[in-house]
Amino acid sequence: MAKPLMIIAAGGTGGHMFPASAFATEMKSRGWDVGLISDVRGLSYADQFPADWKLEVEAASPNLRRPWTLLSILLKLWAGQAMALRRFKQQRPTFVAGFGGYPAYPALGAAKRLGIPIIVHEQNAVLGRVNRVFSRAASIVASGFSRLDLLPAGLSHLTVGNPVRPSVVEVAGTAYPDPGEMLRVFITGGSQGARILGDVIPEAISIHLDASLRSRLNVVQQVRPEQIEQVAAVYERAGIRADLRPFFDDMPEQIARSHLVIARSGAGTVSEIAAIGRPSLLIPLKIAMNNHQTANAEGLRDLGAAEIFAEDGLTADVLGTRLSRLLPDSTKLQDMAAAAGKAGRLNAASVLADAVENMLNAVAD
Fold first, then answer.
1. Which phi and psi angles does 6 have, rounded to 5°?
2. In sequence order, what are the beta bridge partners of 95?
3. Residue 318 CB: number of other CB atoms within 10 A?
4. Residue 150 — left, alpha, or beta (φ > 0 → left; ψ -120 to 50 → alpha)?
5. Domains of the chain: which residue ranges?
6. pTM value?
7. What is d(CA 281, CA 297) in angstroms, rounded to the nearest whole number?
8. What is the structure's pLDDT at 58?
9. Is residue 17 within 8 Å of 165, Cβ to Cβ?
10. Do 119 and 143 touch, CB atoms closer than 8 A?
11. SS3 78
12. Beta-bridge mates of residue 227
């Protein structure tokens, strides 16, 4: 008997692709075939994606500040939808799951035209534009956070959490490191807007922490390639051990080994910090659409697991003063870690899969 087919539609960034991949892994384990539809950028994150086939479609994000580009963008989305329609007529999927990003638009549009059930999953605490467009046509609107701003009036959402990678699950049970002689601080800036973190954080640490605290520090920091030499010099002058890289392919392990995480508050980062259970200082990206990174961070802040520093007010003095008080306070750090762990959701993929299969069974009945 042929396996049922589900389609994952997502793309643009790892923030969309990683939870989609975790959900696909869960559905594969339940006997489903999986097709992935994305654009060239999204597929660049899909080397390990558990799909039986992958289809690259045309997609682009509208830029209202450049209205003369809107026609060409619409043409790309229509062309992508035509490709998805042809594929769906050849292999009719049981349902299509949209995980956000404009590369999801063509497949969701094709599914809506053909009457194929749609579900959408929103990773952020604010419903993204593509998920908003299709939310009224969706059988399930699932969310990574209990808060979901900009959800159209009259709709409800199912809070399942953000499906996390197997590498996160593997380290999620790691005990908080003993804050004895060494203090490990992990700093990650994400793919956008990391320059300010490379400018401000090293200065905050090197100038505002006393010598006894600096001697205990081991800083692991994501730094833009053009900043590594400058940042390394700051830490070296302050006598601070520092591991600086432009990219970390072992983020979950880095988080698990750390006493404190300083990071942007993208949905994936916040969810992984919670799943692993570590204290954090979160610096939302101020240009994030609808300020969704602040909304993401506020959940951990309200639990006492994180503190938020607005980018506009981020100075070495402000951050350094807080670090000088927080880092020596092992009780506070451990309390924040425990609070973060309570917010972690390791079963999001299975909860979403159960909801989808229940929905499909109800439709069949």
1. -120, 150
2. 6
3. 15
4. left
5. 5-164+346-364, 169-342
6. 0.91
7. 9
8. 77
9. no
10. no
11. helix
12. none
Residue 261 burial (C-beta neighbours within 10 Å; 0-12, 13-18, 19+): buried
CA 309 to centroid of chain Cα atoms? 19
Taking the CA atoms of residue 298, residue 250, residue 24 and residue 271 in that order, the dihedral angle to the nearest 10 degrees is: -10
pLDDT at 277 over 70: yes
How far apart are alpha carbons 3 and 85 in whole angstroms? 20
Q: Which residues contact 6 (CB under 8 A, 6 or more apart)?
A: 27, 32, 33, 34, 35, 93, 94, 95, 96, 97
Best CATH choice for the domain 169-342 from the list 3.40.50.300, 3.40.50.2000, 3.40.50.150, 3.40.50.1450: 3.40.50.2000
Token representation of residue 309: 């520093």
The arrangement of secondary structure in 5-164+346-364, i.e. its CATH architecture, is: 3-Layer(aba) Sandwich (3.40)
Using CA atoms in the order 186, 187, 188, 193, what is the torsion angle rounded to 10 degrees? 180
pLDDT score of 245: 92
> Given this chain, do its domains 5-164+346-364 and 169-342 carry the same CATH topology?
yes
Q: For position 68, what pLDDT does the model report? A: 59
Contact status, residue 49 vs residue 17, Cβ threshold 8 Å:
yes
* Residues in contact with 282: Cβ distance below 8 Å, sequence separation at least 6, in sequence order: 262, 263, 264, 265, 270, 297, 300, 301, 306, 307, 308, 309
How many angstroms separate the CA atoms of 269 and 13, rounded?
Answer: 13
